[in-house]
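User: I'm writing a short methods note and want a consistent example. For REP element-mobilizing transposase RayT, I'll paste the sequence; you return only the structure tokens, no commentary, since I'll be parsing the reply automatically.
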Amino acid sequence: MKQEKLEQDCYYHIYNRGINGGPIFKSNENKSYFLKLINKYLSNKVSILAYCLMDNHYHMAIQVLEEEKMVTQAFSNLFNAYAKAFNKMHNRTGSLFEKHFRRIKIGDTNYLRNLIIYINTNPESHGVTEDYKTFKYSSFQTTISDSNDTVLMPIAKEEVINLFEDIENFEYLHEQKRSLGLDKLNWD
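Assistant:
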């Protein structure tokens, strides 16, 4: 299957999981390192609107800022660097991720808002936490936080809040996620 092109100025859902559904993150140290690599390889090439790192998969909502070839190469460098480090740390060899990273182009603002909510609430949907608001490795806390003290990875906070009109609506719509039918989406 041919991969969707990453067109400049367009929004995408980027996601993947571990090979055979296996873990791609075995510790918080792995997750923090992955976020560090995202900053290293993707900053100024994409704008991150939302992210969530689960043990066996990840999700990102991004806007492409640079030309497709540069962004695709940056993602490739990110995933290769992480896989090499993960394999070395956990004394393993071979592929870590299932196929190439997947991407879905986001065609409208409503879909983008729903995707951000889906990504931020993913840990609760998967039963990893009872309250998505407390999950450390998603963008929810960064979006609602007034300070940068606990920020693991910078996101396009102002753009995200503007998509939802204001912070109160952002939080309200996250709480209403099931009435929006988001639990019916199956991207994992």
